[in-house]
C-alpha cells in the first residue's frame, strides 16, 4: 500500500473551528452480530506483517458513518468499540472531523490536550505521553478517536515517524468479559501489557500486544456506563504501553 494515500485522504478536508467538549455521556448502542452474517466485512483495517494499517478507501465519512463497527481482525469476528487515527497536527485532526458532521457524527470529546484538559484529578502521565485528542461518535454507536502530537519528538510523533500516518496505534474490541476474551487473544499470541486489567468500577480495559508490536485493547462496559473513557484507566494503559518497550 502506498503510505502517502491515507495522508492525502486526511488532508483533503476543509478547516473549521468548534467548541471544546469533554467527557460527554452518551447512549452507546449494543453491538451484536445477526444470526447469519456475511463472511466478508469491508474494513478500515489492513493487516500487514502482524500490524494494522488504515485502508484509505474506508476512512471516509461516507463509509465510517454507515459502518456497523463489525469486522474481522486476525481471523476473529469482533465488534469494534473504538480505534485511533493519528494526524501530524491538531489543525489537520480538526479538519478531518468537520467532514463527518453532515453525516450524523457527533463530537463527544475534545478537541483538547490530554490529560490536562480532560481529567480534573491529578493523573500521573509523563508529558511525553500527552497528546491532542478528539473523539467522534458514529451513528452505529462506534467511536473514532483522533490524536496528534502535542510537541515535536513526543511519543505520538515518534510513533508517526516510525510507522507512518497510516498506522493504527490500537483498536479497542468491545467484549462482555475482558478476562475471557483475553484468553482468546493470548492464543493468537497477543500478550497482556499489564498483570491485570484496569478496572474503574464501570469500565474494564486491557492492552495486549503481539510480537510485531500491534496493540489491541479489550474493553468491557458496565450497564449504565456511557463515558468514553476513565482517566485512571487510560493513564494506566498508556503507562503499561511504555513499560513494555
Automatic annotation (TrEMBL):
Transmembrane segments: none annotated. InterPro entries: Glyas_Bleomycin-R_OHBP_Dase, VOC_core. Residues 79-221 form the VOC domain. This is VOC domain-containing protein.
Amino acid at each position: 500500500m502506498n503510505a502517502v494515500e491515507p495522508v492525502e485522504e486526511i488532508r483533503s478536508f476543509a478547516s473549521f473551528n468548534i467548541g471544546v467538549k469533554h467527557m460527554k455521556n452518551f447512549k452507546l448502542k449494543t453491538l451484536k452480530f445477526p444470526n447469519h452474517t456475511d463472511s466478508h466485512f469491508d474494513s478500515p483495517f489492513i493487516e500487514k506483517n502482524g500490524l494494522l494499517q488504515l485502508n484509505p478507501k474506508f476512512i471516509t465519512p461516507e463509509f465510517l458513518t454507515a459502518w456497523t463497527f463489525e469486522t474481522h481482525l486476525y481471523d476473529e469476528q469482533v465488534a469494534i468499540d473504538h480505534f485511533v487515527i493519528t494526524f501530524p497536527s491538531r489543525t489537520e485532526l480538526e479538519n478531518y472531523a468537520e467532514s463527518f458532521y453532515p453525516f450524523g457524527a457527533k463530537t463527544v470529546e475534545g478537541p483538547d490536550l490530554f490529560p490536562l484538559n480532560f481529567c480534573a484529578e491529578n493523573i500521573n502521565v509523563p508529558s511525553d505521553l500527552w497528546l491532542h485528542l478528539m473523539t467522534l461518535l458514529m451513528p452505529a454507536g462506534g467511536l473514532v478517536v483522533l490524536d496528534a502530537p502535542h510537541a515535536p519528538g513526543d511519543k505520538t510523533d515518534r510513533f508517526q515517524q516510525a510507522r507512518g500516518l497510516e498506522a493504527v496505534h490500537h483498536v479497542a474490541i468491545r467484549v462482555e468479559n475482558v478476562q475471557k476474551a483475553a484468553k482468546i487473544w493470548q492464543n493468537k499470541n497477543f500478550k497482556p501489557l499489564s498483570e491485570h486489567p484496569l478496572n474503574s468500577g464501570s469500565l474494564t480495559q486491557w492492552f495486549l500486544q503481539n510480537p510485531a508490536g500491534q496493540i489491541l485493547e479489550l474493553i468491557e462496559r458496565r450497564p449504565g456506563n456511557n463515558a468514553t473513557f476513565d482517566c485512571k484507566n487510560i493513564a494506566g494503559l498508556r503507562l503499561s504501553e511504555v513499560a513494555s518497550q
